[in-house]
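Dear Dr. H.,

I hope your travels went smoothly. While you were away I took the liberty of generating a structure for the chain from your last submission, since the lab meeting agenda had it listed for discussion. I wanted you to have the full record in hand beforehand rather than looking at slides cold. The sequence, exactly as received, is reproduced here:
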Amino acid sequence: MFFFFVGGVEQQVSKVLKAGAGRCINCGSVADLVEYEKVLKMFFVPVWRWPGKEPAMYCNDCSLMFPQSFSLPPPPRSDSPPSLPDVLRCHSCARVVEPEFSFCPFCGSAL
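The corresponding predicted structure, in token form, is as follows:
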């Protein structure tokens, strides 16, 4: 007798706690602070749900869920004047970079 099991556990967002709380570590777009739940699925049907341990960050663009401690700082607000010229900041992680660098030493993106 052969038994074939199709299923697994996945994480799903249950509630958005703070929109735009940080940035995604994968694509750099805005990420939300969320509460999530783990869902056991058998044959693609949800069978059991239980809450996650602590809030996490969720990117709506690439659907990545990652711990809050790994998130990048949120992007600067467009209505506030920048404190440094844009040339001295990385476009991906917004950290201060020396003007002679071609790549950001923090995130590795091209400047």
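Two observations you may find useful: The mean pLDDT is 82. The radius of gyration is 19 Å.

With kind regards,
E. W.
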